[in-house]
Design brief:
Layout (H helix, E strand, L loop, with lengths): L29 H11 L9 H21 L1
Helix pairs in contact: 1-2
Length: 71
């Protein structure tokens, strides 16, 4: 079994949020990838700022799914 890749995770200053370090793979669908990019940009941002972005991404993904039904 191959050894897992080692990564250096930056250590934030005391009181700063920890980065999640989650890597997102592109889907090839521009609207979905744009939503994923918005989520990736939250890494290291205080959690109280996450809700508005989650709601926006959720709405964009719901609109994208609804558009598939119309096509």
């Amino acid at each position: 079994m191959p050894e897992p890749e080692s990564r250096t995770v930056p250590v934030p200053a005391p009181g700063e949020p920890l980065p999640l370090g989650v890597e997102l793979a592109p889907t090839g669908h521009p609207a979905v990838d744009a939503g994923l990019a918005r989520l990736a940009a939250l890494d290291g941002v205080p959690t109280d700022a996450h809700v508005a972005v989650y709601e926006d991404v959720h709405q964009r993904l719901a609109d994208t799914l609804a558009a598939l039904d119309r096509d």
